[in-house]
Amino acid sequence: MIVRIMGEGQLTLADSHLSELNTLDDELLKEMESGDADGFRRTLGALLDAVRRLGEPLPDEALEPSELILPAPDASLEEVREMLSDDGLIPG
Question: Are 81 and 45 a contacting pair, CB within 8 Å?
């Protein structure tokens, strides 16, 4: 799967890592619903760090369609809320 982190670029990520990412996504969703800004910031950072750690960056000149788009690290709670689907940021 191709994942884009807004403002950073794209990474290829194996589907086998979705379970780990979904755990962080579920936590992020709970923090957003409760208005926990500190928890939101911490978990968003952990989610993006996991994608960077588990993914393989694509070259800057590669323009592949992204199957998943994640917010920039400095995105506000409101900006991320606008990106959410019923499943959170990560489907499944």
Answer: no
Q: Where are the beta strands (DSSP E) in the chain?
A: 2-5, 9-12, 56-57, 68-70
pLDDT one-digit tens code per residue, 53-87:
999 999 988 888 999 999 999 999 888 888 876 66
Q: What is the DSSP string of 16-41?
A: GGHHHHHHHHHHHHHHHHHT-HHHHH
Q: How far is CA 57 from CA 5, 16, 63, 67, 77, in A?
A: 11, 17, 12, 15, 26
Residues in the chain: 92
Tokens of 68: 């998943």
pTM: predicted TM-score of the whole model, two decimal places: 0.90
Calculate the dihedral angle through the C-alpha atoms of 65, 77, 47, 21, rounding to the nearest 10 degrees: -70
